[in-house]
Amino acid sequence: MAATHNHAHDDPRTMMAGHGHDHAPESPRDRERKLTFWERTYLPEVFKGLVNTLKMMFRPSSTIDYVGRDSRPEQRHISAVGYRGEHYLKVDDQNNIKCVACYMCSTACPAECITIVGDEAPVDEFGAQRFKKPQVFEIDMLKCIYCGMCVEACPKDAIAMSTTYNQVQTKRSDAIYDMQRLLKNNDEFMQSLNLSPSGKDATGKYPLSPDGCGPDVTHGLQPFRVGTREGGA
Ligand code: SF4
Ligand code: SF4
């Protein structure tokens, strides 16, 4: 049987010129379903959203309290052992700063965020020169990349990083930690570990490793927990 198909009928040019099909193709807008009265008010969807919100309010939280104040341990954010948080400057048993202003940390710092000005080396009563001390010791925490190179470089085990991570500053200048702040960090961190300012425990031992954390001092520190709650991350 001979084919009688008319190709001119399918030719888009013919169709565009108004020949062939009499009706324009249906646009997506034409195919849109007509909304009902209630759909047009959006009220059912708003109500469904509210019901969902109410249901979620009574479900256990799937977030972790990062400040660590939640009474349920499984809900607290706990930094990993060895976590590199805020720096602190260490003191010895006589409460003297251990830093000797050797500039090794500031030289090693890839972010160039440590500023040190060394004081003159003091002379003791026997005329002997003692170790230098810093006159100025500042870390710009906004520039710091928390790499820990300063801690590695220090020959005197004088600087370390605590597990404190919740820094909040409202001014840029507050993010520049001076010596006073870094020594205060030491006191607070040692206190939180029940250690003396020089890092000594009740038995007279120094349980912290030079970088700040040690296996003997866990004080609740555990490896970083991820996804402790259903579907949590
Ligand atoms: S942690 Fe790294 S970037 Fe921060 S002060 Fe130390 S060396 Fe510099
Ligand atoms: S913290 Fe350590 S490396 Fe840095 S200046 Fe003091 S002694 Fe030197």
* Hetero compounds: iron/sulfur cluster
The low-confidence runs, each spanning 5 or more residues with pLDDT under 50, are 1-20, 214-233
Shape: elongated
Q: How would a crystallographer describe the biggest sheet?
A: 3 strands, antiparallel
Could you name the CATH class of the domain at 87-192?
Answer: Alpha Beta
From the alpha carbons, calculate the radius of gyration and give it in angstroms.
34 Å
- Number of helical stretches of at least 4 residues: 7
Report the count of strand segments: 5
| Proportion of strand residues | 5-15%
Helix fraction bin: 10-25%
What is the averaged pLDDT score? Answer: 78
Distance between the termini: 68 Å
Order of helices and strands: HHHHEHEEHEEH
* Major sheet strand order: 2-3-5
Q: What is the architecture of the domain at 87-192 at the second tier of CATH?
A: 2-Layer Sandwich
CATH fold name of the domain at 87-192: Alpha-Beta Plaits
Helix-and-strand structural type:
alpha+beta
